[in-house]
Amino acid sequence: MESSSDIPTSIPLDDWLAKLGQSTGAPGGGAASGVMLGIAASLLSMVAAYTPDGPRAAECGRRVARLRDESLQGSESDGILSAEFGAALALSADDPGRDARVRTAAVRAAESAARLGSSGTVLLSELRMLREIGNRSLSADLAVAAAALSAGLSGSSINLRANLRTARAHHASASELAELHAKAALLTEAHRSATQITDGLSAEFED
C-alpha cells in the first residue's frame, strides 16, 4: 500500500499524470475527478478576479479558492483510499477476511467520492453566480470551468455508484448505504445541472 507521501497532488503535474497512468489505481478515477473539480475552482476564481463587482465577486473568489484546496486535498485522500481498496481486492478469494475488508474499503471509497461530489455541488452554486455577474469578456473561461465542473461531478457520481455496487456485492446492509445512496441521487442531479449550464454557455459561441 502506498503512503500519503507517495500520492500527493502537490507534485509536478506531469509526475502526477504519470502516476495516474500506471497500473496501480492510486491515484485513480476518483482522484482525477477531484483534480477536475480543482481546475474548475481555479477557473472560477480567475473569472471572479476579473469581475469588477465589488464584494460579491471578491467573496466568491475567496470561497472558490477554499473549494479548490478542499478538492485537491480530497483528491489526495482518495488516492490513498484507492490503494487500500486495491489491496483488499487483491486478497485471495480463500481469505476468510476478504469479504469484510472489501466491503469496508468500498464504503470508505464511496464516502470519499461523496465528499468530492459535495465540493462540486457547492462549486455549482458559485458557477451560477458568476454566470450572472461574471465579466463577459471571460465567457469562454467560464464555459470551460463549467465543463470541468461537469466532468468532475460526473466522475464523482460514477465512482460513488460503482463503489456502492461493490459494497452491496460484499454484503453491506441497506441501512449502512442509505445515506450514500441519497448523496448519489443528489450528485446525479448536480451533474445534470452543470451539463445544462455548460451547454448553454457553449451555445453562445455557435455561429
Classify the beta-strand content into a percent band.
under 5%
E-strand count: 0
- State the major sheet: none
User: In whole angstroms, how far apart are the ends?
Assistant: 52 Å
Low-confidence stretches: 1-8
Number of domains: 1
Radius of gyration: 18 Å
- What structural category do the secondary elements indicate? mainly alpha
Q: Kindly identify the CATH topology.
A: Four Helix Bundle (Hemerythrin (Met), subunit A)
Mass-distribution shape: elongated
* CATH architecture descriptor: Up-down Bundle
In brief:
The protein has helices at 13-20, 29-49, 55-89, 98-133, 139-169, 174-203.
Describe this structure in words.
This protein is mainly alpha-helical and 207 residues long. The chain has a single domain (25-203), classed as Formiminotetrahydrofolate cyclodeaminase monomer, up-and-down helical bundle (Four Helix Bundle (Hemerythrin (Met), subunit A), Up-down Bundle), CATH 1.20.120. It is 78% helix and 0% strand. It is built from six helices and no strands. Helix 4 (98-133) runs parallel beside helix 6 (174-203). The longest helix is centred in the middle third of the chain and has 36 residues, at 98-133. The protein starts with 12 loop residues before the first helix and ends with a helix. Mean pLDDT is 90; it is low at 1-8.
Helix-strand blueprint:
Elements: H1 13-20, H2 29-49, H3 55-89, H4 98-133, H5 139-169, H6 174-203
Helix pairs in contact: 2-3, 2-4, 2-5, 3-4, 4-5, 4-6, 5-6
